[in-house]
Every structure is written in structure tokens, then in C-alpha cells.
């Protein structure tokens, strides 16, 4: 069971539902362990192509404790989740558009809150009757029948027994689903007997088994075009501004000077002198850039595979497994980049093993600490998603054995194969005296303003993605998300190049970290937006739930900061070296 207001998954049998005599859990893969995703058997039995009509699952008499548990979970908005042949159960909701198409929500509510006519006090009602629709497709060649859809409609029915025709049965079972409400809803209260029932109906479908994910079809793709046009406008404006600024600066550098004039270093000449100037904390900087490259490789690879349809969420755990494997593979590029950049800054990389090791463990260690804290909180809430201590130890050993070697190997390749990067022009030995800067050019203000453009470029798609994930629903617009990712990369590059070149042109040699921060500063906006979304949109108020959500948000925004900062810096570094190779000085 899952809830958007608590974000704490619970076992279906944590409530007094109908339960089998022996509960059997299916084996989990690594991704399911990390997600706390597991499945158990149930008393809902289906036989292929055999319909069932109001079959009784069990009868449960509520005491004060069980009634209170049901009421609490209903108020917290918990959904029950089931799977059949690896298909998650969904509730079809008609859109009432021109085509009267459907959208699908994962799971069904445990119950609802309402009140009787003329009674102001609220009451809690449980969904005790489930009407399943199993869609199937006949495969002619192997002469087999495959399940391609699993839908449910939940009803609250106060079952009553009656005798007629020499037999005893439930009155509501003789009614159609359209008039089930005539028997009244099933209220949750002490000493009340609840009868759980279900129907099963098989419906033939044209959907083939190989493409049995119609749940993922989006019916509102037209709403994405406005954010795309807005992102294009931002990119065009930034490109125009950068071209105009560059053209004016290069023209000023190309003016002829008289022999009696003292040559001043401005524009591209100043960039030439300071592009390879020293920096503070080069090792930490290289670790951040290397980790950012690793995040970039994982995100890009995941979006491409998902956009091509290889990462359907119907295969449980595939998305997380793929992200993990891509992270391990991207470790080669992370180690290579961190050592390559360190040699470009320092001229050597004698401590390449230490830098590579820091690159390999810094971000995963932070994620592991947050993940361990979240697992502890889930354990205190008796959630099955909590990972046992011994499993955490095995995950730590497995992670160390798989994450560190690729980064070390990449660092070794960078140390052996890459020659130290030497500036094509001499760099000033002494720091230039910095002229006074106006208030609007203050580094903090410039960084905050620079973060607005990347945020505007991807705000809409990030909102849709965040909403789907936190509401435990399907997300399938990976094509749009990949397009938004490209817009983000272009916007970060143009914004950082514009800010960096302006800084170097105004005799400010402290550009390394300040080329990393402006694009990454959009993280602040996303952090505030994510907190607002959790507290206001999801209405999360439980302290443990808030802490869990903040942990997820902290991991996400940290990865986003490293990603955007790395994109911005590498674009600025490439552009600066291009300018440096263009201007030759004596």
C-alpha cells in the first residue's frame, strides 16, 4: 500500500484484510530491494477465461483496534496495489475529451470519507467489493492466450444475507454494478462484520502481448508544446545576447593602436591572460566535475533508453537497475575527466589515485548515508520498505566492489595517456589588481540571475516528472524529458559562457568556481519548488514523511547541481581555450 501524503509504503496485510494461511513473498532483484518493492500472494484467485460473480473472499469482524487502523489509513489516503502476470492493477478514468479516452491510475483506494444524508458527522467507508477486468489477446500462431490488461473498479457495499429459493446468498450479489449503491456503503466501525467480495470479467483486446502497456499512453501531449516554445525562446535570446556581446568585444580588440599608446589588455586579450590562471581547491573542483560527468552519462543514457522504449515500468526494477549499470559504466569517464582536468589546472596529477578515489566515493557515500537514515525511519514506522542492517552491509560491500574500480581505471588511463594541458599563451605570474565591480555584478547576484534561465527551460517537464513520481503514477513522456534535457544543456552552456566571458573581459581572473556555480544555482529554485510541492501540493505533514521527502529531494538536487554545474563549466572551459588559442600575445 502506498500513500502520497505519508510517502511510507506499508504491507497490504498490515491492515486486517483477507489473508492466506501462508504468506509467500516473491524473490526480489537488487532494484526491488533498493525501492522496497516486493509482492505477496493473496486470496484473489483467477482462472483463465473463467468469469467470477460476487465471489466471497472472507469475512472480517472488526474490533476497536482494527477499526481504528482502517480509519487511519483511509484518512491518510492509502492505495492498495496488486499485480497479475507482472501487470499492475489500474483504475481507468475517462477524460471526457473529444475522443472520450482513458487515463489510468495505479492502485485503488482502501476507502473513502463521507457522511450520511442529514448527518453532519463524517464516516469512514471501506472498498470491500472489487470488480476486476482482465484483458486478453489470442495469439493465433502458438494457439495461446496472453494477458494484456488488468483493471479494477472498487465499490463500498454493505452486504446482507437473505434466503430465497431454498438457498442463502448476498443480496448485493444479485444486483448489477450500476445499482450496487442501493445496498448502501460498508461503514468501518467496531463490531461490524465486513464481507470482502470480487468479480472477474475477461475481455478480449487487440493489444498484442509485446506492447501491453497502453496505460502509458499520454492523452495530453499538446500541453507540452508551450514549454518547448518557451525554452526555444530562452535559447534564442541567450544566443543573440552572447553573439552581440562577443561581436562588440572582438571589434574593440581588433582596433589598431598607435606606437605611442600603451596597450591595455581588454576583451579577448584579457581572457587570453587569465584563462589558465590558478584556482582555489583544485582537487575538490576536479572531484565535482568528475562526479558531474558521471551524473551526465547516467541521465543521458537512461533517457535515451527510456525514450526508445527499453525501460518500460511494467518490468519491475529495470529502470533502477539500468541507472545503476550506467552509473558504473560512466565511472570510467568520471575518473578520466577528473584527472585530465587536474592536469590541465596543475600541470601534473601526482595524486591521481586520491582524486580518483574521492570521485568514486564522494557522491555515492552521501547517498548511502541518506538512504540509511531513511531506512531507519521506515523501520521505526514498521514499513516493509525498511532494509535490514545485514542487507545494508551487503549493499555497502557490493557498491564498493562495483563503483570504485571503473573510476580508478578511468583515472589511470587519464594519468598515463593524457599529456599535461599547457596554455598556448603565457599566463600572468602575478594576480592582476582587480578593479571595483558595481553592485549588479556581485558574484552572488550574477549566480542567482544565471540560474533563472536553466530553470525556465525545464520547469514544466520537471514538474510533470516530480508529480508522477511522488503520486506513485506512471511517467512515460521520456521523449519530452530528453528534449528538455538538451534544452537544459544548451541553456546552461550559453548562460555560463556569457557570464564567464564577461567576467574575464572585466579583468576578473577568479573564474573557475564561478563558471561552475551560475548554472548550478538553479538548484536553489528547484529546491524551494520541491519543498513547496511536498508541503502544499501533497499536504505532507507527518514529521517522518517530511524527513523522507527531504531526503529524496536532497539527493535529486545534489545530482542536479553537479550536472548543471559541470555542463556550464565544461562549455565555458572549451570556449575560453578557444578564445585563448585565437589571440596571440607577446
Automatic annotation (TrEMBL):
An example GO biological process term is: protein localization to membrane
Query: Keywords in UniProt for this one?
Result: Endosome, Golgi apparatus, Membrane, Signal, Transmembrane, Transmembrane helix
Primary location: membrane
Record's Gene Ontology CC terms? endosome membrane; Golgi membrane
InterPro entries from the UniProt entry = EMP70 (IPR004240)
From the Swiss-Prot or TrEMBL record, state where the protein is found: Endosome membrane; Golgi apparatus membrane
Q: How does it sit in the membrane?
A: Multi-pass membrane protein
The transmembrane segments are: 223-242, 284-311, 323-341, 353-373, 393-415, 439-458, 478-501, 513-540, 552-575
Family recorded in the similarity comment: Belongs to the nonaspanin (TM9SF) (TC 9.A.2) family.
Q: Which PANTHER family match?
A: TRANSMEMBRANE 9 SUPERFAMILY MEMBER 8-RELATED, TRANSMEMBRANE 9 SUPERFAMILY PROTEIN
User: Mind telling me what this protein is named?
Assistant: Transmembrane 9 superfamily member
Amino acid at each position: 500500500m502506498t500513500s502520497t501524503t505519508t510517502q511510507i509504503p506499508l504491507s497490504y496485510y498490515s491492515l486486517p484484510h483477507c489473508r492466506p494461511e501462508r504468506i509467500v513473498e516473491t524473490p526480489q532483484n537488487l532494484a526491488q530491494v533498493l525501492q522496497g518493492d516486493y509482492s505477496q500472494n493473496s486470496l484473489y484467485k483467477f482462472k483463465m477465461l473463467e468469469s467470477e460473480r460476487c465471489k466471497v473472499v472472507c469475512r472480517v469482524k472488526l474490533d476497536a483496534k482494527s477499526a481504528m487502523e482502517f480509519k487511519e489509513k483511509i484518512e491518510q489516503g492509502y492505495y492498495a496495489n496488486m499485480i497479475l502476470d507482472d501487470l499492475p492493477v489500474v483504475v481507468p478514468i475517462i477524460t471526457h475529451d473529444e475522443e472520450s479516452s482513458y487515463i489510468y491510475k495505479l492502485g485503488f483506494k482502501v476507502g473513502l470519507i463521507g457522511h450520511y444524508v442529514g448527518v453532519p458527522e463524517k464516516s469512514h467507508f471501506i472498498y470491500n467489493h472489487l470488480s476486476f477486468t482482465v484483458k486478453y489477446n489470442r495469439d493465433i500462431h502458438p494457439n495461446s492466450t496472453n494477458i494484456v490488461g488488468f483493471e479494477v473498479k472498487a465499490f463500498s457495499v454493505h452486504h446482507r444475507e437473505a434466503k430465497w429459493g431454498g438457498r442463502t446468498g448476498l443480496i448485493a450479489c444479485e444486483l448489477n454494478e450500476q445499482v450496487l449503491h442501493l445496498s448502501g456503503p460498508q461503514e468501518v466501525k467496531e463490531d461490524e462484520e465486513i464481507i470482502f467480495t470480487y468479480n472477474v470479467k475477461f475481455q478480449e483486446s487487440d493489444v498484442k502481448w509485446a506492447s501491453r502497456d497502453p496505460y502509458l499512453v499520454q492523452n495530453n501531449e499538446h500541453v507540452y508544446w508551450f514549454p518547448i516554445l518557451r525554452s526555444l525562446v530562452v535559447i534564442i535570446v541567450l544566443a543573440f545576447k552572447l553573439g552581440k556581446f562577443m561581436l562588440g568585444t572582438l571589434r574593440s580588440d581588433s582596433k589598431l593602436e598607435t606606437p605611442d599608446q600603451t596597450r591595455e589588455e581588454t576583451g579577448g586579450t584579457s581572457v587570453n591572460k587569465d584563462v589558465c590562471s590558478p584556482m582555489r581547491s583544485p582537487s575538490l573542483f576536479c572531484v565535482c566535475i568528475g562526479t558531474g560527468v558521471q551524473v551526465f552519462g547516467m541521465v543521458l543514457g537512461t533517457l535515451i533508453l527510456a525514450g526508445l522504449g527499453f525501460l518500460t515500468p511494467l518490468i519491475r526494477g529495470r529502470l533502477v537497475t539500468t541507472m545503476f549499470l550506467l552509473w558504473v559504466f560512466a565511472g570510467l569517464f568520471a575518473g578520466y575527466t577528473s584527472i585530465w582536468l587536474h592536469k590541465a589546472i596543475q600541470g601534473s596529477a601526482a595524486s591521481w589515485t586520491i582524486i580518483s578515489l574521492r570521485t568514486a566515493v564522494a557522491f555515492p557515500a552521501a547517498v548511502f548515508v541518506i538512504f540509511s537514515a531513511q531506512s531507519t525511519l521506515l523501520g521505526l514506522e514498521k514499513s516493509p520498505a525498511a532494509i535490514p542492517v545485514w542487507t545494508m552491509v551487503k549493499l555497502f560491500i557490493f557498491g564498493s566492489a562495483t563503483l570504485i574500480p571503473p573510476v580508478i581505471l578511468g583515472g589511470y588511463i587519464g594519468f598515463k595517456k593524457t599529456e599535461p594541458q599547457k596554455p598556448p599563451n603565457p599566463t600572468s605570474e602575478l594576480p592582476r589588481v582587480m578593479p571595483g565591480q558595481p553592485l549588479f555584478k556581485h558574484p552572488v547576484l550574477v549566480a542567482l540571475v544565471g540560474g533563472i534561465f536553466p530553470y525556465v527551460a525545464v520547469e514544466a517537464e520537471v514538474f510533470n516528472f516530480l508529480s508522477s513520481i511522488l503520486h506513485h503514477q506512471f511517467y512515460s513522456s521520456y521523449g519530452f524529458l530528453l528534449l528538455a534535457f538538451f534544452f537544459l544543456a544548451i541553456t546552461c552552456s550559453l548562460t555560463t559562457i556569457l557570464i564567464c566571458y564577461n567576467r574575464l573581459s572585466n579583468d576578473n581572473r577568479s573564474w573557475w568556481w564561478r563558471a561552475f556555480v551560475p548554472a548550478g544555482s538553479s538548484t536553489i529554485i528547484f529546491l524551494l519548488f520541491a519543498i513547496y510541492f511536498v508541503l502544499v501540493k501533497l499536504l505532507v505533514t507527518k514529521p517522518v514523511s517530511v524527513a523522507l521527502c527531504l531526503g529524496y529531494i536532497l539527493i535529486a538536487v545534489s545530482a542536479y547541481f553537479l550536472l548543471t554545474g559541470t555542463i556550464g563549466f565544461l562549455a565555458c572551459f572549451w570556449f575560453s581555450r578557444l578564445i585563448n588559442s585565437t589571440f596571440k600575445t607577446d
